[in-house]
Every structure is written in C-alpha cells, then in structure tokens.
Specification:
Layout lengths: L18 H16 L5 H15 L3 H12 L3 H19 L5 H14 L2 H5 L37 H16 L5 H21 L5 H20 L8 H26 L2 H16 L1
Keywords: Membrane, Transmembrane, Transmembrane helix
InterPro entries: PAP2/HPO, PAP2/HPO_sf
Organism: Stackebrandtia endophytica
Amino acid sequence: MSSATAPPPLFGPPPRSRLLDVALLLAFIGLAVLLTWPSALVHIDVAVRDTIEADRPGWALALAKVFKFLGLPTIQALAITYVGIWCASMRRSLRPLLPVGAAWLLLAITKQLQPLFDRVFPHWPDCPPVCPEVDTGATGATFFAGQGYDAFPSGHSTATAIWLPLAVWLIPQLPRRWRWFLAITPSVLLTMGQTYLGYHWLSDSIGGILLGVLVLRLIQRVPWGTIPLFPVTLLEKWAAGRRAAIDRRAGSASRSPIWTVSLRRMAARRRSIE
C-alpha cells in the first residue's frame, strides 16, 4: 500500500536569519549618509563615470543597452504577475498572488524615497553628455541638489532585486543552481549596463539592490500560506468546489458506456423534432 505523497509547498522557505536584514538596513542607511556630502564614495562615483566615458566603443554601448533592458520594471512586474497567476492555477490556490500584490505595493512605496534624496543623474538620457545648469561633479553629485531628480536609489535595481528572486521563491521546485543564477545574475548585469550608459551612479545601483533585497526578505517572512485571510479563504473554497464539481461531471461522463451516451443523444434529438 503506497502512502499518499505530500503536495508541493506553495512557496520557498522563509529567510532564517534576521541579522542579514539588519545588516542590509544599516548598509543602506550608511550608503545614504555617505552621499550627503562630497565623501570618498561620491568621488568614486564620479571617477567611475569619467573612466568609462574616456573610452566607450559602440559594441560595448550596445551590450550595455541589452543589460539595461533586463531591468525594465514594467516588463518584470507583468512577467512575474503572470508567474503568480500560473502558480495559483497549478496549485488551485489564490495565495501565490498575495506576495506578488505585496511586491507591487512595496515597490510603489519605495519609489517615494527617490525625490526625497533628490540626487542628479550622471547623464540625463535626454540631454547628453551633461544636463545644462547641473553640476555632476563631486559637489553636484550629492543629495539634495534642489533639482527634483530621483537617481537614488535606482528604481530599476530595486525592482530587479525583488521581482526575479520572488519568481524563484514562488517556484521552490527549481534546481538550486538555477535559483541562484536567476536571483543574482540580472542584478549584476543591470548594474553594469546602467552604470556604463551613465543612467545611474554606481552607488545608485548598489543602494537599489540593498533596498530591494531587504523588501524581498520582508515579503518572504510573511506566512502567506497560513495567514488567516477571510476573503481569500472564501474564494479558495468556492474555487475548490467548482473544480470538484467539474471533476465529478467529467468522471461520471467517462464512466458512462458509449451506447448509453448515444441513446441519450438520440432521445434529445427526438424531443427537439417533436
């Protein structure tokens, strides 16, 4: 007699240590503090930009644009939302959609940090190489430039650090090597691409990754699989009842002999003629 196999888990395991959460928060705060005046970090940002601009061949620019395309937040959000819908359909539960909705909400909240820091971009894409009346040297690359810019933290980096690892977390059956590859590689490539193109300072991307990983871990700590959500429970019961009714009808139809089905069709046709 074979024992019943347990259903696959809805999500991956939650983060184990809270020390990493604290370290991420402190690192983000420390990075932000160092960008409030022309510190060594700001000088590094400027040096990286100037070094890259000294020699930028066409093939490297084309490759950097491909890397930056990986971090388009709208495409990522729609793709991972579809992954959540697929997981909900396969597991017959609406709960995989809950962390996806939380990611949408928290990303909208983190977006409000950018105008508060008011940091200029290395090069605004619409007026290369340098925007008029904006000093992008070490003095002008700090926070509170008074121009209403929103370079820090990079929204693309924040979204990439949340969406793709979240998709991996929604599919815990993926092999371990693929989980690490999909969770880390896009953020690395995006950082290279947007830094090379001058769309963000290097520290903007680092700050976005720190913030994104912190938000991701907060989402993963919520017990979405067991949290008592009354409306979701009602919807799940309704969906399960509908599925059971469909399965019963399909099973009863498959058990009926062929000649019985034929007789029923003939009787229905005769009634329609009469």
